[in-house]
Amino acid sequence: VAQILDGKALxxxxxxELAARCQRLIEAIGHVPxxxxxxxxxxxxxxxxxxxxxxxxxxxxxxxxVIALHSDATAETVAEAIExxxxxxxxxxxxxxxxLPVELPKREILDRIDPxxxxxxxxxxxxxxxxxxxATFAPATAEGVMRLLEANGIPVAGRRAVVVGRSPVIGRPxxxxxxxxxxxxxxxxxxxADLAEITRQAExxxxxxxxxxxxxSGAIAAGAVIVDVGITPGPGGxxxxxxxxxxxxxxxxxxPVPGGVGPVTxxxxxxxxxxxxxxxxxxxx
Length: 285
Ligand code: ADP
What we know:
Blueprint: E1 3-4, H1 7-29, E2 34-39, H2 44-60, E3 63-68, H3 75-86, E4 91-96, H4 106-110, H5 124-132, H6 140-151, E5 160-164, H7 171-180, E6 184-188, H8 195-199, E7 204-207, E8 225-228, E9 232-234, E10 237-239, H9 244-247, E11 253-254, H10 261-280
Parallel strand pairs: 1-11, 2-3, 2-4, 5-6, 5-7, 7-8, 8-11
Antiparallel strand pairs: 9-10
Helix pairs in contact: 1-10, 2-10, 6-7, 6-10
Bound molecules: adenosine-5'-diphosphate (ADP).
């Protein structure tokens, strides 16, 4: 029977630890650190995401500030909102909820975020550091994958890892983090020929394609560790990319959807906010 990589339990424990760290931080810096969450969607999946991130921040003692702009806001309006947060010394971290409307110049907008406050690794500076294997804030979901492995005692160094998906928010950064952790990494994507042949070679398989049931029992090796990052809304709730029922009897470990990587993401954002605040103050907590 596969070990279940329980993100909910991990998040609950991590929140307690972060709350204690946040208290020490507040005593040291004399104010409550703020996390600015800028969003252009006030409903749907993005709305749920924003509420979860804000609630987690508040639970550990960070002040969440949700800045809800109209979904038809111009690039200038979004950029101004980011700049206002960059200029506020109380604001330790800034996250811009994605996806942004397609008509907006995403790269230009995200690169307005002060890299020191870039808690979701959204800027080109952060991505560049990550690609080089240097210390930086990585995208929170990608780091959540690594935390889930680490917290469950799953070794990464020297192992063969396969990532399905190469998006800038998940696939690419997860591959960079796995590489930094000394895995041997293969990245597969939409154009990969014979995906199952590649994924069957994985000792650690991270799936972030956004295609429900992409990975079935024939696509994994016995005993493999499977982390499912897919969250496609379906009639019965969120659907992962992995056919859980088919894969679970063969896998060594597997993350459920929901309750796997998802809950860890908001914890990582809170943790990054504390680290950003501490580093601004020149202390460590
Ligand atoms: P996410 O935000 O989950 O990363 P995106 O839609 O931005 O989702 O990216 C999806 C990624 O998954 C892309 O890199 C794409 O190449 C990959 N992908 C999509 N469908 C498949 C497929 N059938 N097989 C392998 N990779 C796929």
